[in-house]
Amino acid sequence: MSTTRFRPSRRFWPVCAVLAIAVTAAGCSSTGGRRAEEARAKAAATGGSAVTTPRWKVAMVTHAGAGDAFWDTVRKGAEQAAAKDNITFLYSNDAQTQNQVQLVQAAIDQKVDGLLVTLAKGDAMADVLGKAKAAGIPVITINSGEEYSAKFGALTHIGQDETTAGQAAGQEMAARGRKNVLCVIHEQGNVGQEQRCSGAQSRAGAGFQVMYVNGVNMPDARAAISAKLQSDPSIDTVLTLSGPMAATGLQAVQDAHSGIELDTFDLGPQVVAGLKSGSVGFAVDQQPYLQGYQGVDLIWLYKYNLNMLGGGKPVSTGPQILTKDNADALAEYVARGTR
Amino acid sequence: MSTPDLLVQDRPAALRRLLARPELGSLIAAVAVFVVFAVVAEPFLRVSSLGTVLYAASTIGIMAVPVSLLMIGGEFDLSAGVVVTTAALTSSMVSYQFTAVTWVGVLVSLVTTLAIGWFNGWMLGRTKLPSFIVTLGTFLMLTGANLGVTKAISGTVSTKSIADMQGFESCRWLFASEVTIGGLTVKATVWWWLGLLAIGSWVLLRTRFGNWIFAVGGDADAARAVGVPVARTKTVLYLGVGFGAWVLGQHLLFSFDTVQSGEGSGNELIYIVAAVIGGCLITGGYGSVAGSALGALIFGMASKGIIYAQWNPDWFKFFLGAMLLLAALLNAYVKRRAERGPR
Questions:
Q1: Which residue of A68, A194, A307, B116 lies most exposed, with the fewest beta carbons within 10 A?
Q2: A308-332, pLDDT tens digit by residue?
Q3: Cβ pair A124:B257 closer than 8 A
């Protein structure tokens, strides 16, 4: 047996080149992808600072875990305000109490001009915030820990009261005539999530169950929710507590093949798409962008003019109920990561 | 000199001894990290920042001491992270529920963590299962128990504040006080760390038990053959981890008043990272306690240095992983060079 060696003809390489160009051109997606993202980023207003104050330094230390979409939105808001207010914005985060405390201490060591802190762990932050106060650094608390904020000497708190948010969700579900609600807690032991569920339960006026799933293992969570829906056909509403969990919940609802409505806290691309298509009834939003933006902006106002919104009373960024009517406008903002 | 190796013989004896030290790699790494952050981060060299870095290092280092001893003894403890939380929860809930002086909770907590350590060692000796599996089991069980028991007793996921209870102030003094020496704020954990470090090093290098640790980690069968009580040695090492967890757990409780039940998991790997950067071999039989301190210090400098340098902290874990690999490679290299020389 003789092997014939492949010998390209003279026309082979030009043909290849033409094909490659054709494939490259045809292979360009006219929708989505990085190009679309860059176009959106350009559309979103940025621009330089609009003030003449010196370049202050503001640090934000949160209890967020790594790579959380919600906190990315908070950060974007803060960065936007920082750009406008001629502020150097420093962000750090750690989900563990002692590490978050150390990060706050590190910010104090750096002699920042303002400090934004989340108080998810309440009492644990008392000492270190006392040190910030002693160092003369203005502190504003954001997102969680409204009940501790004033006690620890913060100027104000910007966030959403989770029980109130839960009640708003409950009222909305009652208005929509939901009969039997399944509230899905995806972080066992998160106080805010418990408050959302119990708040909703107090106003829903219907059958109400709480189930726990593992939020860091989405396939597992999806299987758990669909198993629950299959085993109890009387459930007509699933209430999830975050944007990503809503996406998982939607898949589980599809698995279960029944006319179940999904309602959720917080937003995300899938939630907005769901609002549009009708698979999501409503979303309760706490406006994370606003928490970051207002946090930085209020520090600026305080340092510039000694202003404090609400005279130091907690400033609510939610609950804001979003439905199908808002979906079109929201889609654009969610896509650029500011909602 | 029995082995004729020109390369090694050429070197002075002092240098050869230095190269054979397990801490060498981590010492070089620690100096490098310090220099990098001293150059790029202006606040890093301030005295107040040094206090913050030392504190961060001590909260890792307190556990890295017993964990490195355990690794030299040839075993792992994956439950080391959550046991710390268990220690804090136990202490807090016992004191609160029985309205006892906080010292009661502190002592019950010590008994609990030692019991967990003993359980790990006993299971290991009895079942001959790999310690990876045994402690993975205790890790998962404790993670569940921390949450379940706390929720069942306090109704929420965190404990109630014990700050107004009798004995709190003295406990706080012991575990969570701070003294300022010339502008440098030194937290109690730093003293505990240094103390454990001294004791751990002394035990490892100057006592018969220290020889046993090297022996059981190097070759358990050979050690047994020459009369070393292998199972008992390992159990004592697990008790050591329990003790370290108790110290750190009490610190968490008395500095923050309340404890979140879901914390701690993931830290066990940080302790192992500190031990490995410090020159402990993952297969046992080789390593040092002082090295674990350098590992913890590198961790403290890196985690806070990134903040002082105003770098994006998103990259912190990447940096840590790269450090770990580099340290492990350096250790392997140094060890190979040292073994080639005469003993």
A1: A307
A2: 988 889 999 989 999 999 888 888 8
A3: yes
Ramachandran bin of A243, using left for φ above 0, alpha for ψ from -120 to 50, beta for the remaining angles: alpha
Phi, psi of A182 (to 5 degrees): -115, 115
Interface pTM, i.e. ipTM: 0.72
Contact A106 B308 (CB under 8 A): yes
Domain boundaries along the sequence of chain A: 56-160+287-307, 162-285
Structure confidence at residue A61 (pLDDT): 95
Chain A partners within 8 Å of B260 (Cβ): 97, 121, 189
pLDDT for res B2: 42
Q: Domain count for chain B, please give it.
A: 1
Interface test with B, best of A93, A103, A110 (most B CBs within 10 A): A110
Q: Retrieve residue B162's tokens.
A: 């014990």
Q: What is the CATH number of the domain that holds B76?
A: 1.10.3470
Q: Return d(Cα A153, Cα A150) in angstroms, integer.
A: 5
Domain spanning A162-285 has what CATH number? 3.40.50.2300
Give the CA radius of gyration of chain B.
21
Judged by CB atoms closer than 8 Å, whether chains meet at A106 and B258 is answered as: no
Tens of pLDDT, residues B114-130: 999 999 999 999 999 99
Shortest CB distance from A105 goes to which of B52, B263, B314?
A: B52
Query: Which residues of chain A does B147 touch, with a Cβ-Cβ cutoff of 8 Å?
Result: 188-189
pLDDT at A5 over 90: no
Tell me, yes or no, whether B1 lies in a domain: no
Which residue from A minimizes the CA distance to B314? A66
> What does residue B36 show for φ and ψ, rounded to 5 degrees?
-55, -50
Residue A239: closest CA among A293, A316, A186: A186
For B298-322, what is the mean pLDDT? 82
The fourth-level CATH superfamily of domain A56-160+287-307 is Response regulator (3.40.50.2300)
